[in-house]
Amino acid sequence: MEENYRIPLYLDAPPMFLLWEADEAYAFFIPLLAAFSMSSNPFLALAAGGGVGLACMQAMAHVKANGGKQLFRQAAYWFLPSHHIYRFRRTPESHVREFIG
Fold it and tell me: What is the distance between the alpha carbons of residues 73 and 53, in angstroms, rounded to a whole number?
C-alpha cells in the first residue's frame, strides 16, 4: 500500500496564501477590501485599494527582508503601549529609561 505524504522543506515555513506569505497577503487585501467598502465605484476602488495594498505589501516585504519579523516586535515594544497590546515576560516597560541598583 502506497501512501503519499507532503514533507515540507522547512519546519518553520510561514503560512502561505497563493504565492505570498500570509502577513503580506493581509497587507494587500485589507486596504483593498476597505476601498471596496467605502467606494461606490468598483473600478476606482480596485485601482486605489489595489495600489495602496500593493504599496503596503511591498513595504512589509522590504522591512521583513532587511530587519526580519523581529523588527515589527521591536517597533511594537517601543512605540505601542505595552501594557495593552504586547506584553513581554523579561523586559521592562518601554518608558523606563533609568534603573536603580
Answer: 22
What DSSP element (H or E) covers 20? strand 20-21
DSSP H or E stretch at residue 76: helix 70-79
Structural domain includes residue 6 = no
Residue-level pLDDT, tens digit, the chain, 101 residues: 677 877 767 777 777 888 888 888 888 999 999 998 988 888 888 899 999 999 999 988 888 888 776 777 777 777 776 565 556 666 666 677 777 65
Domain count, the chain: 2
| Structural element, H or E, at residue 67 | helix 42-67
Same domain? For 73 and 62 the reply is no
> Which grid cell sits at 25?
497577503
The reported pLDDT for the residue numbered 53 is 92
Domain residue limits at 63: 16-67
Q: In degrees rounded to 5, what are phi and psi of residue 76? A: -65, -35
**Does residue 8 belong to any structural domain of this protein?**
no
